[in-house]
Design a protein that fits this description.
CATH class: Alpha Beta
CATH topology: TIM Barrel
Shape: elongated
Distance between the termini: 56 Å
Structural class: alpha/beta
Strand order of the largest sheet: 1-2-3-4-5-6-7-8
Helix content: 55-70%
Number of helices: 11
Bound molecules: erythose-4-phosphate
Strand content: 15-25%
Length: about 220
C-alpha cells in the first residue's frame, strides 16, 4: 500500500520524505489555506520535494470553472493530480479533464455509489473520507471495504485512496482490507513509527553498553 501525507506543510513533508516513507501528497483548500504563500507556489514546492503524486484541489464548483482551474493546476508540475469534488458538475468535469489526459482524484466520497460513479467518469483516484464518517457514527472502513470489493469485482483502474485518517489503526485496517493508498496527517505517520518497547529496548541496550564500557575501563586502570 502506498502511504501519502495529507498536508501542505513543506517542513513536515521534508522531514518524513527524507525517511523514504512518503509515496505522495494530498492537499485540500483547508490545508493550503493554513500555509503562507500563493497556492501555485505551495503546490510547486511540494511537487519538487516529492516525486510521487501530489493532489491539488479546485475551488470552482461549476463545470467551466473546474475545467479552467484543472488546466492551470496541471501546468504546475508533471506529478500533479487534480482534485475534484463528487458533485454532478464535478463528474462532468472529471469526464472532460480525464479525457484531456489529466489525472483526477475524486474527493469527498462518502458512499460506495459515489465512488462507483467517480470511477465511471474517469477518476484515477477515489477518496473516501473515513474519519468524517466515523464522526457521525457510521463505520468509515466499511466504505473502504465496499470500494475495494467493487474495484476487484470489475478490475477498475481507479485507485482507492483512503482519506480523513485519524490514527494509525485506520492505516492498518486500510492496508488489511486492500486499499491502494492511505493518506494521513504527518502526526499519524509519526505515531506509526513509535512503540514504547522500542524506546525502552534501545535505552536498555545503550545503558548496558555504557555500564560494560565503564567496568572494562576500571579493570584496565
Ligand atoms: C483527503 O484527501 C483529504 O484531504 C483529507 O483526508 C480530509 O481529512 P479530514 O477529515 O481530516 O479533514
Amino acid at each position: 500500500m502506498k502511504l501519502f501525507l495529507d498536508t501542505a506543510n513543506l517542513a513536515q513533508i521534508r522531514r518524513l520524505n527524507q525517511m523514504g516513507v512518503v509515496d505522495g501528497i494530498t492537499t485540500n483548500p483547508t490545508l493550503v489555506a493554513k500555509e503562507p504563500g500563493e497556492f501555485e507556489e505551495i503546490i510547486a514546492a511540494i511537487c519538487k520535494e516529492v516525486k510521487g503524486d501530489v493532489s491539488a484541489e479546485v475551488v470552482a464548483t461549476d463545470f467551466d470553472g473546474m475545467v479552467a482551474e484543472a488546466k492551470r493546476i496541471s501546468t504546475i508540475a508533471p506529478n500533479v493530480v487534480v482534485k475534484i469534488p463528487i458533485i454532478p458538475e464535478g463528474l462532468r468535469a472529471t469526464k472532460a479533464i480525464s479525457g484531456m489526459g489529466m489525472r483526477v482524484n475524486m474527493t469527498l466520497v462518502f458512499s460506495a455509489n459515489q465512488g462507483l460513479l467517480a470511477a465511471k467518469a474517469g477518476a484515477s483516484f477515489i477518496s473516501p473520507f473515513i474519519g468524517r464518517l466515523d464522526d457521525i457514527g457510521q463505520r468509515g472502513m466499511e466504505l473502504v471495504e465496499d470500494l475495494v470489493k467493487i474495484r476487484d469485482n470489475y478490475g477498475m483502474k481507479a485507485e482507492v485512496l483512503v482519506g480523513s485518517i485519524r490514527h494509525p489503526q485506520h492505516v492498518l485496517e486500510a492496508a488489511k482490507v486492500g486499499a491502494d493508498i492511505a493518506t494521513m496527517p504527518p502526526e499519524v505517520m509519526e505515531k506509526m513509527m513509535q512503540h514504547p518497547l522500542t524506546d525502552s529496548g534501545l535505552k536498555r541496550f545503550l545503558d548496558d553498553w555504557d555500564r560494560a564500557k565503564k567496568s572494562k575501563q576500571s579493570v584496565a586502570a
